[in-house]
Each structure stands twice: as structure tokens, then as C-alpha cells.
Design brief:
It is a single chain. The chain is α/β, with parallel strands linked by helices and 285 residues long. Helix content is 44%, strand content 9%. Helix 4 links the parallel strand 1 and strand 2. The N and C termini lie far apart (50 Å). Bound molecules: fe (ii) ion (FE2). Fe (ii) ion binds next to helix 5 and helix 9.
Length: 285
């Protein structure tokens, strides 16, 4: 049986997924027929309130992806049906997993254009927050942008960068890039700030907060700045980083040898999430 991974949360939690039937790469069968009517109803309620918000707040590429996937609003999506569309679009696949998986397996999936999606869905008393990703977060939040060729190439490059980070004591820095750029990224558009980060877009309250609130810092993307910044796990972010385009993000990751960054900053403490540096390019609300 594969090792059960540690959950990346400040408070230790017992992972609820069933890892006993996972293959060596942590994949499982989705067993779609076993979802209950109540689980489909939870999907329907989450989808209904969040889809309204993404039409207003999400990046146009995300909205286009969500539509292209033809995700059903009233039942948990079937991974096999989604894969037929994704494969034809960018060559990506999604694979079912029991929950969080170890970094090396996660990186290997991404490098091979496979995105791991947790099979189970949250309980009704967890509509607003849960500490582990479930199928609503993983699918609704992450999969739409895998239809975007440039963002999909970034994700593949990110996965390919994993083994070097593990070997070079750079995992923490690479994880910050994922946190700020995949989970909590904002995009500057001619119409104003839009959200593309999955952690934001699967949260009703943070979707509005990240764009509307005067409280958080919104700082223009700088690769090293992002890779050096600590983050908050169980609260809204105090800083969001803003890209101009997915091309900017892809080029930064693809054209940069992270090795010298890992060496240069291996003993450097992280920048606190609330801090604004004199060199930051801050977007005023
Ligand atoms: Fe996520």
C-alpha cells in the first residue's frame, strides 16, 4: 500500500480518502455509480453559487474552459467523459486519486500531462471550507484552465521541475510558486483584475475578497519574489500576485533554471505574507 501523505495544513488532519486500493502512482477508479443522491446535490449547490461568481470574477480563459468542459451543473462529473474533451483540447487527462498524494508522484503526473483529482466530495456542513481538497476544488477549480494551451504547458513544466527541486532542497520554493500562481493567482485584464487561481475560485467568499477587498496586497508577478514568499494555509491570503498573461507565467517557469535560485536562497527565511517590499510593484485598488 502506498504511504499516506501528510496534509499541508497548519492543523494536523486525518486524511479521509481510502488509500488502500490505490495503485503505485496513487490512482484509483472513480466508481462514479457509487456517489449518493446527496453527494450529487452537494455538487449541484456548490456549482450553482460558484458558477454565478466566476462569470463576474474569473479570468475569461477560465470561464471559456469551464464551458468547454460541458460540466453538468447537477451531478458530479464523470472523469472519463471529461477526458474525452480534454484530450482533444490540450492532450491532458485527469486521473482519480484518494486525496493528497506525495510530491514526487504529483510532479510525475503533471510532467506527463495528468492532473490528479480527488474522488470524494465534501459534506454539506463544509460547503464554505474544508482543509483537504475534494472533487469540487480539484475539478471545478483546476480542470477548466487545463483546456488553455499556455497554462497547460506551464503546468507540465512545473511538474517537470519537481525532481530537481526535491534533489536541490528547493521544494519549499517550488511549492510557493504553485501556491501563489496555481491556487491563488490573479490576472490583470483590460476589464480589471480577474481570478484564475483554483483555491480562490472554489471558495465563494475569497473569490469576491481577492478582487474587491482593499485589505490584501496585490503585487505584480516576479518569479523570485513569489518563490521566496511564505503563505497562509487556513485563512484568506494577505498578498496576491498578479500576472499579465499566462504566457508571462509559462515563460518565467520554462525559461528559468531554478537551480541557481535554490542555491542562492536555500538558507534565506521566507518573506512574511503581509510584507510589501520597496522593490514590489503594487497594484492600487
Ligand atoms: Fe488545488
Amino acid at each position: 500500500m502506498p504511504r499516506q501523505p501528510d496534509a499541508p495544513t497548519q492543523n494536523p488532519v486525518e486524511l479521509r480518502g481510502d488509500y488502500s486500493r490505490a495503485a503505485s502512482d496513487y490512482t484509483v477508479e472513480q466508481a462514479w455509480a457509487q456517489y449518493t443522491a446527496e453527494e450529487h446535490a452537494i455538487w449541484r449547490d456548490l456549482f450553482a453559487r460558484q458558477f454565478r461568481l466566476i462569470e463576474r470574477y474569473a479570468a475569461p480563459e477560465f470561464v471559456a474552459g469551464a464551458r468547454a468542459l460541458q460540466t453538468s451543473p447537477d451531478r458530479i462529473p464523470r472523469i472519463d467523459e471529461t477526458n474525452a474533451i480534454l484530450t482533444a483540447t490540450t492532450g491532458w487527462q485527469i486521473v482519480a486519486v484518494p486525496g493528497l498524494i506525495p510530491e514526487n508522484q504529483f510532479f510525475a503526473h503533471l510532467a506527463n500531462r495528468r492532473f490528479p483529482v480527488t474522488v470524494w466530495i465534501r459534506r454539506r456542513d463544509e460547503l464554505d471550507y474544508l482543509s483537504e481538497p475534494d472533487i469540487f476544488h480539484d475539478f471545478f477549480g483546476h480542470v477548466p484552465l487545463l483546456t488553455n494551451p499556455t497554462f497547460a504547458r506551464f503546468m507540465q513544466a512545473y511538474g517537470a521541475a519537481g525532481p530537481k527541486a526535491i534533489a536541490s532542497n528547493g521544494l519549499k520554493m517550488l511549492a510557493r510558486l504553485y501556491w501563489y500562481m496555481v491556487e491563488f493567482g490573479l490576472l490583470a485584464t483590460p476589464q480589471g483584475l480577474r481570478v484564475y487561481g483554483s483555491g480562490i475560485l472554489s471558495s465563494k467568499s475569497e473569490t469576491v475578497y481577492s478582487v474587491e477587498s482593499p485589505q490584501p496586497n496585490r503585487i505584480r508577478f516576479d518569479l523570485e519574489r513569489v518563490m521566496l514568499t511564505d503563505y497562509l494555509i487556513d485563512d484568506f491570503q494577505q498578498t496576491y500576485f498578479v500576472i499579465d498573461s499566462f504566457e508571462q507565467l509559462f515563460r518565467a517557469a520554462y525559461d528559468t533554471d531554478f537551480g541557481p535560485i535554490y542555491r542562492k536562497y536555500s538558507d534565506t527565511p521566507g518573506i512574511a505574507p503581509s510584507i510589501v517590499l520597496p522593490t514590489d510593484r503594487v497594484l492600487e485598488k
